[in-house]
Description:
The structure is a single chain. By secondary structure, the chain is mostly helical. The protein is built from 20 helices and eight strands. The chain folds into three domains: 26-119, Fumarase/aspartase (N-terminal domain) (Fumarase C, Chain B, domain 1), CATH 1.10.275; 125-372, Fumarase C, Chain A, domain 2 (Up-down Bundle); 381-444, Orthogonal Bundle (Ribonucleotide Reductase Protein R1, domain 1). Helix content is 59%, strand content 6%. The strands form four sheets. The chain has a two-stranded antiparallel ribbon with strand order 1-2. The protein has a two-stranded antiparallel sheet with strand order 3-4.
Amino acid sequence: MRQIKQETTGFTKLTTPSRSGVFQAATDKRLEKFSESISFDHRLYSQDIRGSLAHAAMLQRQGILTAEEFQAIEHGLGEILVRLDEGHFPLRTELEDIHMHIEQALIEKLGDVGRKLHTARSRNDQISTDLRMWVREALDRVDVGLQRLQQAFVSRCDRDLDVVLPAYTHLQRAQPVLAAHYWLAYVEKFERDRQRLTDCRKRVNQCPLGAAAVAGTSLPIDRHWTAEALEFEGVAANSIDISSDRDFAVESVFVLSVIALHLSTWAEEWILWSTVEYGFIRLPHQFCTGSSIMPQKVNPDTLELTRGKSARVLGDLQTLLVLLKGLPLAYNRDLQEDKPPLFDAFDTVEACLELAVPIVEGAELNRTSIESRLEYGYLDATTLMEALMKRGMPQRTAHHLVGHYVAIASKRGVPLSALTDDEFLSAAPELAQKDALEGLRGVLGVRQAVQAYQSYGSSAPNEVRKQVQSWKERLH
């Protein structure tokens, strides 16, 4: 372990910046290996240096550092940042984390001036500050990824507007919808995800710096100035709470978990749609793989991995919840373990979003296959029921009657539109009056059923066109 000369006290100890003179023995090498976090928290280096620069500037403004000391620290941190950016900065387990690495490098360069950087702060508030800055940047990246995916779905709407698809409930064919309506369903889900990101970011973006270890400091610092310099929206108000708080990490990963669920739903659906049994969609081959033994296979591996990786994100959320559930106030070393699941959740979701965009843009609907089986499943049954209701028939009566018609058609193996007048009238003779039967036939067939929709938010063509235009404007 490197010896650090304690210039102001006149003695030399085997120590690191985190160990005071109270220790009578060097850290056991096994503990160094067990307790290090540099292997994963090194990615916080730019946030750590930015936070340190703002902290040093505040100390200088408050008269705690001289202008010359601040300039030396500023220059030294700038050189360290360049070395880290270029990958020329050695990492050592005995220095535990990225914060100690940067501080130690500054001390080796500046001596006592470097030691002054840690004035009026603890690693507790320092780490929380760095992590919050990293999380808010990552939330912004995820938001951009979601917006691009929304744009990819909306970009399909015009070219697919004439395609009618079966919508499913219970994985059974239910009612006909426009393909564009399907695409906008995902756009809506991802919009809620973006709203959650925005809302979460507000709570992330509260500055903990200056709370020190747990009780604040007796030095005359200006936490509000530092918060503004680091672009935080507010200043966290309670030093005990600050020291223990990882709510922002849990909430962030919860939002990522919902995004992962939505991506998994989309992936599962398109995996099914790409099978011979469905035959709805052709996936871009550059995002598929083959079989080592079956030459005909085009496997949807990217979608399968997206579905599988969603489990990792859910596991990351569970890890954080279990990590925090038994901790007393305030800081506990357990909190070091928040970063692997947090980083993994962001990395996983960002990777999935990056690949989802070109898949959505490049996939092609199998129009012929879809059209050839579109009348299967009696997708127009609900519209027929509603047409009967418009003529005054009670809903439950109409529901039972149409079920009877479906049973007749199913037994014959024909669509509802192929039923004869006698078959319709046999169960409801009153339909012979006032050309009622002719009017009912006008809503039979999937395309006529789609045209019959009227309500806001439905798959009515005019409604869908309005929604598409609205989303184009919102995502522009």
